[in-house]
């Protein structure tokens, strides 16, 4: 890795990663967030090129074959991947780059870039997570069940992350994240 720092940002579905990332972008506008590719359909309010690059399975395969994807993983019934070129460019320019990524992808990146900082966002409890996901109402019952199952597995794997932050209060969690980042940048 060149000048910049790569940050792996993981956490179970419904834990509030996007809300936290939005707040972090306000508190620290120079943070560079990578926009992933996904084959899932956009949720209401999600914008192509901002939240994700929404692509077809065929387009996803094409990018994989062209070597344009840094890492990818299947999550539920869909594929997710990190476009390689922008990440290389940002790191070369010395930026701090945040990848919102599930645990398999994070493991792959840790092998490629051992200096990457990994942070896992935890819910205050499994009950809170389940309620948040249900209240969000963006998944049908079967998808929701699948996400909860993945969440339990991800939370077991979260012990291998460098840091774990409980998202009990958004502002507090954001401040904790920034202090971790600042400490990592001065080492
Ligand atoms: P969602 O469908 O809720 O937006 O995302 C599902 C999961 O995919 C989340 O855990 C999210 O962090 C993860 N994810 C998003 N983009 C990527 C990516 O580029 N690579 C990998 N491995 N996971 C991703």
Automatic annotation (TrEMBL):
It comes from the Bacteria. It catalyses: GMP + ATP = GDP + ADP. Keywords: ATP-binding, Coiled coil, Cytoplasm, Kinase, Nucleotide-binding, Transferase. Its EC number is 2.7.4.8. The keyword Cytoplasm applies. Residues 134-187 form a coiled coil. It is an enzyme of class 2 (transferase). Pfam families: Guanylate_kin. Essential for recycling GMP and indirectly, cGMP. This is Guanylate kinase. It comes from Candidatus Fimenecus excrementigallinarum.
